[in-house]
Amino acid sequence: MCKAIDWHCLPFSISQHDQVFNCFGRQFCLHFETFLLGTSPVYMAFLRFMGTEDEAREYSYSLEVGGNGRKLTWQGVPRSIQDSHQKVRDSQDGLIIHRNLALFFSGGERQELKLKVSGRIWKEQ
């Protein structure tokens, strides 16, 4: 296992953000995006690998978000950076959090978003 990922969610008005991690001598890009899924505002986080699809299959990752005694976990294989973020988003291949659930996780009066996404990256044997 390489590294824990800690990342704080952005306000819904910010449409996307990327953060690069070095792990196992390779680079991974955590992509976070807000968009409408139908008519529902959602947050989506997924990991892309800076390399080919075959190389990406050598790794796995998990992302977790939670609050108020609950948690939501996503586990998958990172997508190659050769796949655009739009392609990954459209396939819904990542952690998707509906705004109402995100606000519930944030606690309080469901007015302010206070989410922390954490995760792990590991190499498959």
Automatic annotation (TrEMBL):
Superkingdom, taxonomy of origin: Eukaryota
GO terms for biological process, alphabetical: ubiquitin-dependent protein catabolic process
SUPFAM superfamilies the UniProt entry points to: TRAF domain-like
Keyword NADP: no
InterPro entries found in the cross-reference section: 7-in-absentia-prot_TRAF-dom, E3_ubiquitin-ligase_SINA, TRAF-like
UniProt-listed Pfam families: Sina_TRAF
GO molecular function: ubiquitin protein ligase activity; zinc ion binding
GO cellular component assignments: cytoplasm
Keyword vocabulary terms for this entry: Metal-binding, Zinc, Zinc-finger
Record-annotated Seven-in-absentia protein TRAF-like domain positions: 21-117
TM segment ranges: none
Family according to the record: Belongs to the SINA (Seven in absentia) family.
PANTHER family: E3 UBIQUITIN PROTEIN LIGASE SIAH, E3 UBIQUITIN-PROTEIN LIGASE SINA-LIKE 11-RELATED
Protein name: Seven-in-absentia protein TRAF-like domain-containing protein
